[in-house]
Amino acid sequence: LIPDRAECDLSEPAMLHRGLLRRAPDVIVNAAAYTAVDAAETDRDTAFRINGEAPGVIGDMARETGAFVVHYSTDYVFSGDLDRPYREDDPTGPLNTYGESKRAGEIRLAESGAEYYLFRTAWVISSRGHNFLRTILRLAAECGRLQVVSDQVGAPTPAALIADVTAHALHQRLGGRASAEKDGIYHLSASGAASWYEVARYIVESASTLGFDLRLSAEQIEPIRAADYGQAAPRPGNSRLDTSRLTEQFGLTLPDWRDGIHWALEQLR
Predict the structure, then answer these.
(1) Which residues contact 19 (CB under 8 A, 6 or more apart)?
(2) Alpha carbons 37 and 120: distance in angstroms, whole number
(3) How far apart, in whole angstroms, are the C-alpha atoms of residue 233 and residue 96?
(4) Digits of tens for pLDDT over the chain (269 positions)?
(5) Strand 184-187 relative to strand 146-149: parallel, antiparallel, unpaired?
(6) pTM to 2 decimal places
């Protein structure tokens, strides 16, 4: 069951605690977050209440009642300076308020003493909601020219993949096939990597092949540096996540990011 904001408002810790106790869940999957990365720079208090304090409240309640927690975090807890995919135990170093608030939530959840899985993911896409894939499709249908950042690298990761992996991991954990010693942080993203610019071109090329009505061709997309894009919050240049721990622990093979693009486009078509 999914409680609404009137019952469990993540920006109101006391209300959140009461609401969770009233529900008395066996498993809590917290997929909610303050994700307005640029707005967080001027709305720091709200970002930290939702992303930093709420996971600790959830963890405290879970420890008290014996519930198991699944929580999601982000590649933005890293600075993006490494020249390889980030592992779970690499030092964090957020570049912006959003990343700082998400890292604070990771720490609070760990300090709560709850049993949990924390999945760090990146570049989430879907056929629904507000995300990069839908934005590129909208702009490609409206514009004759588009500039996309080319010096940030990661792997577009379908929300459906995150949900499937979560269900798989919970099934093993609750069924006794994954021990409590394996609780903690896992990196979860699609395989492979590309820049936003390369991803945008691939989206437009694939959508055109599938018959989407677009004004823009892939050749009309131009690369631009992040420094010239003018966003309020800096982003990590390297958002690649090493998923070895996840795949080895749960016996998974993660699909290439292009597969996720095709799946989402098929859903939209």
Answers:
(1) 3, 7, 8
(2) 16
(3) 6
(4) 666 666 667 777 777 777 777 777 899 999 999 999 999 999 999 999 999 999 999 999 999 889 999 999 999 999 999 999 999 999 999 999 999 999 999 999 999 999 999 999 999 999 999 999 999 999 999 988 999 999 999 999 999 999 999 999 999 988 887 677 888 999 999 999 999 999 999 999 999 999 999 999 999 999 999 999 888 899 999 999 999 999 999 999 999 999 999 999 999 98
(5) unpaired
(6) 0.93
Q: How far is CA 181 from CA 105, 173, 229, in A?
A: 21, 10, 44
CB within 8 A of 219, min separation 6: which ones? none
Q: Is 197 a catalytic residue?
A: no
- What residue type is assigned to position 68 of the chain? F
Count of CA atoms in the C-beta half-sphere (13 A) of 138: 9
Which of these is catalytic: 98, 117, 186, 202? 98
- Concatenating the DSSP letter of every residue in the chain gives ----TTT--TT-HHHHHHHHHHH--SEEEE------TTGGGT-HHHHIIIIIIHHHHHHHHHHHHT-EEEEEEEGGGS-S--SSPBPTTSPP--SSHHHHHHHHHHHHHHHHT-EEEEEEE-SEE-SSSS-HHHHHHHHHHH-S-EEEE-S-EE--EEHHHHHHHHHHHHHHHHTTSS-GGG-EEEE---BS-EEHHHHHHHHHHHHHHTT---S--GGGEEEE-GGGT--SS---SB--B--HHHHHHHT--PPBHHHHHHHHHHHH-
